[in-house]
Design brief:
6-stranded mixed sheet, 21 helices, 493 residues
């Protein structure tokens, strides 16, 4: 089912952007460590297979591996039935099934290594520090290092492990493996440190700025959006089970000495509380702490197992039904637009900008019509052959890289400061930057319309009237792409 969804829809803005990580590989990147680009390269055979399915295939595989790992953690907590419940609850999670299991985001590889590291830590801390425990601890360190190569929030997993050792199992401080594990993590994370050292630690500065407190009044909308998003992504039924399991733990209704429960809580709660706190004054995204909620799913499974042993408890049936409902509604919305979201949502700019389902709709139609259009004009001499496409922000530039330039000799560059164009600040350099007396294509959409003259950093002698590509859904136009030909670049800043 997840593979069908992965093959069926256009890439979202973020996914198209991570495609550029594979198209222009590096030791690290402006926004994230390099792992998501590496797994795209791996599963697409270095982009030899370029369809959406192969770009997302690492996520589809991640969802399957994570289901099995979640089962293993549940079995470690009590028995196989607990593992079965954990696997079912993971599958019912919107974050686990869709965000990690369909969309290609840094979360996909991170969650594999995050959950695997958690499993090895549970095994290492469950008993005496013997040879088997030492081996599991070292395996956990490798998984932690790979998780760090996927996403910076892995620091919370490492911090939870460290606090657990300092508070409940200080014997590990006397082992060589404790220090060797940290050396292993540091070596694995070295590519990211080297890239940041070469680029003024721009990635760390960017992310610290996203969570830094601002001198602004409390914004209830941000907090409410984060809470609602976390609830939907986790699945409301699963979230209730998680909250009940935490209440039971802090009321000491579960076994207070059980190391597994303490470790899972120390890993998950700080990350959840961090982004809830940040959402008091900044806009956040609910998937940022998704790995923390996955960490608590086995606790929900354990609480459920302590109360029943049936194969499919009613609460799991309801949670799975909620998943099916959400996937069905979302899929139908993308294909038909039956919910008038644009009339409900706050309209900021552009046509149908409130209908977020259009983010993954229409790009294939753009590709189908733009490539022959561009060839027609270039063959007629109206524009230099293989002229680059210019954009004004990291998205839609990334979407154009995948849907307008892929498979041709064209490429995409973006103009603006690094905060606006992200990795394109480096991609521009790889293509020699903006050169005087060159031609370019310029594409903008009615959903986020910006006329070419609005790019103050570039000035072209001639800019054509636009050709229009109409995006149709259910036989009706939903938005438009405008294709401009820009000739003879005269100014760049």
């Amino acid at each position: 089912m997840r593979a069908l969804l992965a093959a069926g829809f256009c890439l979202g803005n973020d996914e198209a952007y991570y495609y550029t990580y594979a198209l222009y590989p590096a030791l690290s990147h402006f926004d994230h460590p390099p792992m998501v680009g590496w797994v795209i390269q791996l599963f697409s055979l270095n982009l030899y297979f370029g369809s959406e399915l192969f770009i997302r295939l690492a996520a589809v595989v991640a969802g399957t591996i994570n289901t099995w790992l979640m089962y293993c953690i549940g079995r470690q907590l009590r028995d196989e039935r607990t593992g079965w419940y954990a696997a079912l609850l993971y599958t019912a999670s919107i974050y686990g099934f869709i965000i990690v299991g369909v969309f290609i985001l840094p979360d996909a590889p991170q969650t594999i290594f995050w959950i695997a590291a958690t499993l090895f830590l549970l095994k290492a801390f469950n008993g005496e520090i013997d040879l088997k425990a030492r081996r599991n601890f070292m395996l956990a360190s490798v998984m932690l290092g790979l998780a760090f190569l996927s996403k910076y929030t892995t620091a919370y997993l490492w911090l939870g492990m460290l606090v657990y050792i300092l508070a409940f199992n200080r014997k590990w401080l006397r082992t060589a493996e404790f220090y060797l594990a940290h050396v292993t993590m540091a070596v694995l994370f070295l590519p990211v440190m080297l890239w940041n050292a070469q680029n003024g630690f721009v990635s760390f500065l960017f992310h610290s700025g996203r969570v830094e407190p601002v001198a602004a009044p409390f914004t209830f909308d941000y907090l409410l959006t984060e809470i609602v998003g976390e609830t939907l992504y986790t699945n409301p039924i699963i979230l209730v089970l998680i909250v009940l399991s935490l209440v039971s733990f802090f009321n000491k209704k579960s076994k207070p000495g059980k190391p597994e429960i303490k470790l899972l809580i120390l890993i998950a709660l700080p990350l959840i509380l961090t982004f809830l706190s940040v959402s008091l004054f900044r806009r956040t995204l609910p998937h940022w702490n998704g790995a923390a909620y996955l960490t608590l799913i086995p606790l929900a499974a354990l609480r459920l197992r302590n109360r029943t042993g049936v194969l499919f408890p009613p609460v799991i049936k309801v949670s799975l039904a909620f998943l099916v409902l959400m996937v069905s509604l979302s899929t139908t919305q993308v294909l038909t637009g039956f919910i008038p979201i644009d009339r409900i949502a706050k309209k900021t700019t552009g046509e149908n900008v409130g209908d977020y389902s259009l983010e993954v709709y229409g790009w294939r139609q753009l590709r189908k019509e733009f490539i022959p259009l561009a060839e027609k004009y270039e063959n007629a001499g109206a524009l230099r052959a293989n002229s680059p496409i210019v954009s004004y922000r990291w998205f839609p530039a990334a979407n154009f890289s995948y849907y307008a330039a892929r498979g041709t000799r064209r490429y995409v560059m973006a103009t603006g400061d690094t905060a606006a164009i992200h990795k394109y600040a480096w991609i521009n350099g790889l293509h020699g930057g903006f050169r005087l007396n060159t031609d370019s294509w310029y594409i903008t959409s009615s959903r986020d319309f910006k006329p070419p003259r609005s790019i103050a950093t570039l000035y072209y002698n001639q800019i054509s009237l636009p050709d229009t590509i109409t995006i149709m859904r259910m036989g009706k136009p939903v938005y438009y792409f405008y294709i401009y030909r820009m000739k003879d670049l005269q100014m760049r800043r």
